[in-house]
Each structure stands twice: as C-alpha cells, then as structure tokens.
Amino acid sequence: MSGTFVGMPAFPAAAREALSDAQLRRNLAHATSTIRAKRAAVVGEVDEWEELRLAGAAIKDNVLHHLDEHLLRLERSLTERGATVHWARDAAEACEIVASIARQHDADEVVKVKSMATQEIGLNEALAAHGITAWETDLAELIVQLGDDLPSHILVPAIHRNRAEIREIFRERMAAAGRPAPENLSDVPRELAAAARLHLREKFLRAKVAVSGANFAIAETGTLVVVESEGNGRMCLTLPEVLVSVVGIEKILPAWSDLDVFLQLLPRSSTGERMNPYTSMWSGGTEGQEAHVVLLDNGRTRALADEVGRQALRCIRCSACLNVCPVYERTGGHAYGSVYPGPIGAILNPLLRGVGVDEQTDSLPYASSLCGACFEVCPVRIDIPEVLVHLRSQVVDAHRAGPPKGEAVAMKSAAWVLSGARRLSWAERGMGVAGRVLNRLGRKVMPGGRRALGRLPWPGSLWSNARDVPAPPAESFRARWRREGRR
Amino acid sequence: MRVAVQVTCINDAMFPDTGEAVFTLLRRLGVAADFPAAQTCCAQPMVNTGYLDEAVPVVRNFVDAFAGYDAIVTPSGSCAGSVRHQHAMVARRSGDDRLAEAVAQTSPKVYELTEFLVDVLGVTDVGAYFPHRVTYHPTCHSLRMLGVGDRPLRLLRAVRGIDLVELPAANECCGFGGTFAVKNAETSTAMGADKARHVLGTGAEVLVAGDNSCLLHIGGLLSRQRTGVRVMHLAEVLARTEDA
Questions:
Q1: What domain of life (chain B) (predicted)?
Q2: pLDDT for position A487
C-alpha cells in the first residue's frame, strides 16, 4: 500500500506519460463514454433539471455564506444525539484523532467506506504509521489498494484498469491481505465481484472500528448520509462497534428537506442512475455503537475566503465533470497528482493548497482547454472555466515578483502590441514581409492553396511539431482596408 | 443602426479573407458596416493565460474603438464570449470605474456573426452557393459560452448546392484552447487528432467552423497528416455566391 501522490510531476509531464499508454487511453475512453451516455439519458428525463441545479447551488451557497452558524448547529444536533464531535484544522490533526480513537479500542485494523475526505488527508498511510491497517471495502478502492496503486477517478477509482488487469491483481495480491482469490478465477465481472465479496466479508465481521466519510451532513437533525452502490458501506456503518466519520465542513445541508434536491442531483450525475441502490442515514450513535464525527477543514476555509473560487465548495463529488472532460479522458486521473482529478481537481487542489507553493499545483489551472463541458454538466452549477481563469491569474500574480519567465515576457509584449492599433499595424507589417519570404520558401501547400511554414524553432515547435502552420498573408486585413481607402 | 465589425486579431493578421467575407456578406444583406481602425484584440489571449493586468489596456482599447456603435459583429464565438464574459472581470480588476462603465455599455452590443444574422437581421438564407461536401464543427465557446445553438447549421442548410454531413462527436473540444495548445501540447494534439479522425470519417472536402483559431489547430493537423481536407471559416462559405 505504497501509492502516494506526493512528489508527482507537474501536469504537462504527467500527462505526456499517460498519453503514451495506449491501454490506459482505451480503458478511459470506453469507461467515460459509457457513463456519459448513461448520465445524459437519465438527466434528459427530468424536465426541471435546470431548476434542480439552481436549487442545489442556492442551498450550498447558503451553507457557505453562513458556514459558522450551520457548523455550530450541526455540532449541537450531533452531540444531542450521542455522537462525539471533533474538529480538525488539517490532515495531520484529523489523522491523529482517528488513530487515537482506534488505539483507545485496541484496534490494529479498521474497515473503510469509500471516502474522498479520508483519501485527501492520507488517512491509510497515517494509520499505518501507528501500526493500524485500514482496509478499503469499496470494490474499486480495493482494487486500487491491492494493486499498490493510486485512485484515478472520484467515483470509479480503478477506472484506468480493465478486468484482465483486475483479475491479475486479485490473484497475486489478495492472499497477502486476507482471504485469497479462488482458484481458476476468470475475468468475468460477476466472478471478480464474488471474489471481492468473500474476501471482504471476513473483514466486515472482524473489524471493531469503521471509518466513513459522508455525502451530506444535515445540520437540523445531526444526520449523516452515505450514498453508495455496493452495500459494503452499510456493512461498515452498521457492524463495527465504533464508527468514525470524517466529514469536510462544506458537506452540510441545513435541513432534512434539502435532501430532496440532492438525492435527485447526485445519482443521476454520478452513476447515471435514477436512484442509487443504498442510501444510509444515521443520526448520532445508534444502539450499541459509539459514533465519532471529525469535522475537517484542511484548506476549506482558505477556499471559502476566495470570492470567485468558493463556489468549488458546492461540489458534491459526483464526478460528472471528469466523465465529460476531453482532457481527463486522454490523460486519466493520475496526471492531476491528487485524489481530486479532472476539472474539479484542477480548481479544488489549488484552492485547498494555495497557489505559488509548488509547480505541480500551479500547473493544474492550466490543465484545461476551457471548453466548458464541465460547467454544463455540473449539478450544482460550479462555473469551473471561470474559476480556472481566476486561478490562472493568481498563479501569474504569485510569480510577478520573481524573475520574469519567457511566457510573462511574451504576454507583456503581446499586450503592448495589442493595446494600440498603430503598434499592431507595425507588427503585422513585419509579419507581412516575413510572409512574403516564407511564402516563397514554404514547399508544402496546404489544402485551400496556402503555403505552410516548416517546423519552427522552440517555442514555436510546441505548435509545429504536430501541426502545419500557414504562412502569414502578405497583407493584413487592416492594411488592405487602408490601402483601398474604404472610408 | 451603426454596425461595426470586429475583425479579431488572428483574422486581421492571419486570415484577412475572413474579415473580407464578413463585409461582403453584410453588404449583400444591406448592412453598411464600419471597420473601426483603432481596434486590435479582445484581450482573450492574456485573460485566459492569467495575465489580467496586461489585459487592461487591451480592453480599454477595445471599448474606445467600438464606442458609439449599436452593434459590433465578430466572426468568432470565442472573442464574442470573451467580451461578454471577461471584460467586466478585467475592468473590475483595474479598479477604474469609468472603464467598468464603458465595458457595461459595449459588451452587450457584441454579436457573434451567426447571432447577428439570425437574431438581428432575421435571415437564415443569406443567398450563398457552395457546391461542396461540408461538415461543421461547433467551437466550444460559441456552443457553451454563447449558446449559439443551431444558428450556424440553419445558415449552412440554406446554402445552395451544399452537401452538409454530420460530424461525429461534434460537441467535443478540438483541443486548441489558446495557450493550452502549447502549454499542454501533447494533450492538445491528442484531442485534435481525434477531431481530425472524425472529420476524415465524414468524407467531407471542407471543415467549417465559426472560429479560425480552432481551424488553425484542426487544419494544421489535417494538413500535416496530408488528408487533403480543407478548413474554412463559416463566413467565407456564407459569402460565396454563384458569381464569386
């Protein structure tokens, strides 16, 4: 279980590696196009989808604008119903809290419900350092864990694997983690699932402590909600004596009735289903069970302070944006260097961590062509392209003090040329002269009759390595207009 | 109505025929449009790369150049989107209230070409003639930032002689994305290669779109792969008649 995102290269380098993996690209293209079609079909059935999106965004905005009040109310409701509430400012604090609860119960292992928050804080690794083994029980999470791998998708963490690869992982790794894979295991999905079920059942029945996240936390009633497909979550939530839930502070819904909106938005957007198979809700400790709730900040208040960026905290982790993103589809999730990949990861990571800190984080706002497909499908209307551009400006501003990069020099010069027509005119005249020369030298004629330039030196090579460039015209539009004296 | 054409910096410098086509088309439809010579660029290259301070003088130049017009027509979904959605942000950043006011005056008057033709002039048949097999790529910003919908297709369907064929996965980004094309060059070309493959599959002679920037990218790939497929701006197709 050694996978870690720490020290990942910046997006362009990581993407380059992923792009050269033909198997990965095939796996991803197949999976994302399937789920994209499913989502489109079930969203298309809902006439008032846009109203639901607006309602979802409004409820979350209200939560964010009065987060302090909602949090205190949630704490009160949870405490009244017998849960113990802990507050964690960062990953280290949150991990320490979970570890100390496990230690108090002499547990050397815990079972886990799939949870983005606990992945975000690196809980499994932190528990391992305390001698406590954390077992993932979600099928895809199990595949990632057994494979010493990293998740590459919010909803389907093993989306980059096909079933032949999964069969190999089970055959080679299950025995060391508990019940071994059956002899003669094939790569038929049903057999793979059955093998995982047998392997996991031992762990559900043995574990004293379980760790979960929550999809929603209802301030009014102190209810935590977990939405899932496999039933493993419900096993974890109900069987062990102690349940620790790590919940991001933005997960709040003010009232029970708000679930109405989100239980329509979430399943359709994430799995492309009208309703998910299992929805578990619990308020405080149930009979015979000790309940702990860790309310996690870990950069969320930093994101909240960003006026444009705070809308990212509306995110309900549905992963619809990943499945429609043309960049994600080709590079996969690992290229984003975080448990939050894809368009939402490209904004959430810089918002949680802050820009100007490391190259990898600063590369993420640029990992998008700004095509806007993510915004179109987002169930809570996060304007991801807007936030991307906003964060790019923060990245640029964070580096203004240091020595100027080539890009900054190019942008400043371009802006200087483009802030006055006369300057642009001169620049175009220069291009025109070059164009006349290059037109003679250019050997290749592009369809339509224009000559193409050859391969350009760096940085032009970044363009011309794969794409022909038409030679500039001898005369710009404005020059022709002026020469012909049209007005 | 005083109408101006924003020729856009890339059209001005690299694709002057597109600017020419817009004027030809508008003249044929009875619109005498101006080319305000003070215009340069919408500032999108700076804004989308994060250089907001640098964008300020460019935006200021834009609002000065187009002040006093009732409509500003541009053959670019991307630039129209940039004006409508980003100029206010740049003005806010500058802290200059007069600039913000000027932006608020100018931005709503900017129309992407097909919006102007269909919504303002109320025409879908512009009297064009183009007897070729054509496929159309809706560029992301025209599709999602502006929501031009089927306006370009309605205009194309009315072109005489045209054989318009549907492009598979048309709504998917071609991978251009401004500086994305060089900052993430490999990802950009991987996206573009899939787009080029779809275009080739249609058997079209010409790929048409409403943004020359995207066409520069897709056309560059199509040319490098020696496919023989030509790219053309929508305005140039609509400007063609049996005489020219």
A1: Bacteria
A2: 62
